[in-house]
Amino acid sequence: MTEGLENAASAMRNKMMNIQIVANNLANVNTTGFKRGMTFAEMLDGEQEVTTKKATDFSEGVFVETNNPLNVAISGDAFFTVKTPEGEYLTKNGDFKIDNNGYLTTREGFKVLGQNGEINLQDELIDKNINLAITKNGEIKSDDKIITKLKISKVENEQVLTKADGQRFYNNEKQYTIANDNDFELYHGYLESSNTNAIIEMQQMIQLQKDYEASQKMITSIDSMMSQVKEMGKI
Amino acid sequence: MSTRALRTAATGMYAQQLNIQVISNNIANLNTTSFKKSRAEFKDLMYQEISTNPQQETAPGSVEQTNAKIQVGSGVKASSTQKMFQQGDLQQTGQQLDVAIHGDGFFQVRKADGSFAYTRDGSLKISSEGSLVTTDGFIIEPGFSLDEQVLGISISSEGVISAQEVGENNVELGTLELAKFVNPGGLMSLGNNLYAETEASGTPILGQAGHDGFGELQQGYLESSNVDIVEEMISMISAQRSYEINSKTVKTVEEMMGIANNIKR
After folding, report:
1. B213-234 per-position pLDDT tens digit
2. How far is Cα A124 from Cα B182, in angstroms, rounded to an integer?
3. Count of CA atoms in the C-beta half-sphere (13 A) of B42
4. Does B230 touch chain A (CB under 8 A)?
5. Rg, C-alpha atoms of chain B
6. Cβ partners under 8 Å of residue B218, min gap 6
7. How confident is the model at residue B2 (pLDDT cuts 50, 70, 90)?
8. Per-residue confidence band for B66, with pLDDT thresholds at 50, 70 and 90
């Protein structure tokens, strides 16, 4: 009897935790490069013979044109690599800026890595009317001269990545291999919007709420059954 | 646990409110000379690892693919507002002291407190002392003085100012200098179409219009605002809907808490 109570209570706790994931997805509906978290029910994809677990949905968000020369969207299973004091991180957020020393950085000021390390564009910016272009395979060009190539990284299994604030992803080693040119495509002057889908999240929210209610009903009916059992004991 | 979901939804609502503020400021400045639109930027907040993973046991035939950690995020915050320095349309005004910058660069002005500020608003005037000033009376630097005898002023695309004086030929008065920044997006808006240098923008690089990547000057034109009303409207709709959907989260969590409270009758 009490086992049923505990099961129902744990189901309620579980649903509440899932609501938190949905709430976070919805809060980040306008966050560039955000990848939605998946609720526990969604994680188990049992359509094929094997069941795969997914914690993050890495499907592509919509590409929005911004015409900003420092905006890049990345298509395919690859990431930009940024350097932070704690090591290299990956991100899908290609909303870059140039800091006061001329380095290409993320909005938070972490340096974006090229294949030869940090990218400094100071000379190109001062000397001439810069016509900065980023090609589909990650080369940064000013007019026809190739300055450097962005370090675009690939992870064999994206699901092992851990999320960090600022749309960053990492795994424990924080060392990433460079992706092949045919693994990805860059879109210059575009940003990838959040892949949160309002309809899916709303549907999840309704379902979680109903399940929550059902578990609560279960608890109350077990409770009334238990009190009936108690009644039986009375003569 | 539940109050965290409420707080997460609240961060989402707050972020959208800020987004609307930025959009409404853009729309309000639709007709402001040389106004540059802003865009709010968001970033996701910290993730917390929840130790209990209810699907930890690997069932036969299943493949463990995740890092076995359940991460729960805690919402969103506005990380910055970004100024978009795209060129606005040049509008002909026919005024000889209206100067638009076509391309990169800012006019340098000296504020009342002696510090420099930068503007792209080229609707210039001549002050009572004969110096070239902006609409708000800030003196253009490096300045030069004109006397009352001037009949007409011409400003070349490279910024050379020459005046036609009574009974004389054209007299060259000087050259307007422009300033540009490594990262104009890092400039601080001061209002009145003025910007101030910050650590993020870098120090100003002075130069002559039409050279070394500086824009050219167009006399008789003003640069209009670069706000695109259709784009702003679309952003406004999307921000309002996002606000609404976050309020739905609040409502759902509130109802769930009510359900939990009803366990014990």
Report:
1. 888 999 999 999 999 999 999 9
2. 10
3. 28
4. no
5. 27
6. B90, B99, B100, B101, B102, B157
7. low
8. low
Total residue count of chain A as it appears in this document: 235
A130 inside 8 A of chain B by CB: yes
Residue B259 distance to chain A (closest CA, Å): 6
Mutate to test the interface with B, among A28, A132, A197 (most CBs of B within 10 A): A28
Question: For chain A, what are the domain ranges?
Answer: 2-23+198-233, 62-192
ipTM score above 0.95: no
Strands B194-196 and B62-63, bridge-based pairing: unpaired
Q: How far is CA A135 from CA A178, B23, B132, in A?
A: 16, 31, 44
What does the buried/exposed string (b/e) look like for B58-93 if buried means 16 or more CB atoms within 10 Å of the residue's CB?
eeeebeebbbeebbbbbbbbbbbbbbbbebbeeeee
* Residue from the list A163, A167, A220 with its beta carbon closest to the beta carbon of B265: A220
Q: Is A3 exposed, middle or buried (0-12, 13-18, 19+ CB in 10 A)?
A: exposed
Q: What is the pLDDT of residue A46?
A: 47
A16 in contact with B, Cβ within 8 Å:
yes
Q: Where are the domains of chain B?
A: 2-53+67-84+227-261, 90-223
Q: Which of 126-165 (B) contact A at CB < 8 A? A: none
Helix axes A198-233, B229-261, angle to 10 degrees: 10
CB-CB neighbors (< 8 A) of A174 in chain B: none
Q: What angle do CA B107, B113, B115 make, to 5 degrees?
A: 40
Q: Which residues of A touch B11 (CB under 8 A)?
A: 27
A47-95 per-position pLDDT tens digit: 444 445 678 889 999 998 887 788 899 999 899 999 999 889 999 999 9
Give the whole-angstrom CA distance, residue A18 versus residue B139. Answer: 60
- A107 interfacial to chain B (CB closer than 8 Å): yes
User: H or E element: which one contains A177?
Assistant: strand A177-178
Tokens 């080369």 appear where?
A139
